[in-house]
Amino acid sequence: MSLKLDGKKLSLEIEERLYNYISSNKKIAKRSPGLAVVRIGEDPASGVYVNNKEKACSRIGIKSFIFHLNDSAEQEEVEELIIKLNSDKDIDGILLQLPIPKKFDEQKLISNINPSKDVDGLNEINIGKLVKNEPAMRSCTPAGIINLLRSQNITIEGKKIVVIGRSLLVGKPLSLMLLNLNGTVTMTHSKTLNLNKVCKEADILIAAAGKPNLVDSSFVKEGAVIIDVGIHRLKSSEENLTRLCGDVLLEDVISKVFAYTPVPGGVGPMTVTMLLVNTIFSWKKQFGLSSTLKDLLP
Ligand code: NAP
After folding, report:
1. Are residue 29 and residue 92 in the same domain, yes or no?
2. Rounded to whole angstroms, how far apart are CA atoms 259 and 267?
3. Greatest CA separation found in the chain?
4. Catalytic site includes residue 53
5. Domain of 49?
6. How many CB atoms lie within 10 A of CB 27?
7. Residue 120 appears among annotated catalytic residues
8. Same domain assignment for residues 149 and 59
9. Which pLDDT tens digit goes with each residue over 156-190?
10. Residue 266: CB within 6 Å of ligand 1?
């Protein structure tokens, strides 16, 4: 039987460690860790994600500050807010909830975030340090995937790993993190020829294309590990009902694989957990606290 990489269970285990870490260090720091989330516009999925992050923060003792701006806000207004948060002593992490309306210059806003508070790891200083394999804030979804693999002692070093997708949010940073951990990584994209043949070589296959059910059994080697990053809400045949699915057609591949992540309950919860981890690391650094959480960093 295939092994389920249960992101929900692992995220609860890590949250317990984070809760204990904050409780035992709060007296020294004299304040809780603080996370600012900047949301722009009314994208409903973003509303759900921000809510989940707020709840996760309150479960473990991080103080969250939500700044919800209207679509009519100007670029300069958001930049000023970020600059203000950069120097706010109660804030250890700043997250710009993506996507934001197209009229904004997203990269410029991310560049404005102080790299040491860039808990999404998307600022070019942090990406540059990732390329150089130097310690820095790492982006949350890739870091969560590495924790999921490690939790089941799945070896990365020396393994053939294929990543589908080359976005700045997932595919690129994930490929670099796996390379830094001595995986032999192939990054693929929408122009890759014979995608299924390339993927079939993989010991670990990671699907982050954002295409529902793209990966079927023709992509998968017997005994491979398969990680599904995609998340899609599809209308089901019964009226008014929707169901979640990923980039992987799980029912077609499950009998072939050694291990897999479910959707939901796989990569998604780990993304939120790594946001908490990054916020706590920024807090820890500011107050020179001891580190018992190092194993959570990729
Ligand atoms: P994105 O920015 O749209 O990037 C998608 C990437 O996949 C692109 O590099 C694209 O190639 C490639 N691609 C698209 N169709 C392809 C195909 N048919 N064959 C091969 N490659 C293909 O998406 P993203 O932000 O990386 O997110 C990917 C998925 O992960 C989405 O479903 C998103 O919702 C999900 N996600 C989940 C989490 C989580 O926590 N669970 C977090 C982040 C994202 P080109 O570069 O050539 O266009």
Report:
1. yes
2. 13
3. 57
4. yes
5. 24-114
6. 7
7. yes
8. no
9. 999 999 999 999 999 999 999 999 999 999 999 99
10. no
